[in-house]
Design brief:
Blueprint (H helix, E strand, L loop, with lengths): L1 E2 L15 E2 L8 E2 L2 E2 L1 H18 L7 H9 L3
Parallel strand pairs: 1-2
Antiparallel strand pairs: 3-4
Helix pairs in contact: 1-2
Amino acid sequence: MVTDEWVGYRGLDKEYPHAVIRHSAHQYVVGAIHTNTIEGFWSIFKRGVVGTFHKVSAKYLPLLHRRISVPV
């Protein structure tokens, strides 16, 4: 898992392999490690909710996630 340095991500390395990109140190890419992919995913996800589905309940959120993240 690759994240930026937001405090909410601290401790993830206890559960998952975790790399941190430190934007405060003007670090945006370290080799093949960057946060652009996940930022792009969330952008598409939010556009899908707001533009197409308008509202998504917690019950159907996993289905929407799968629909957006798995190529057809």
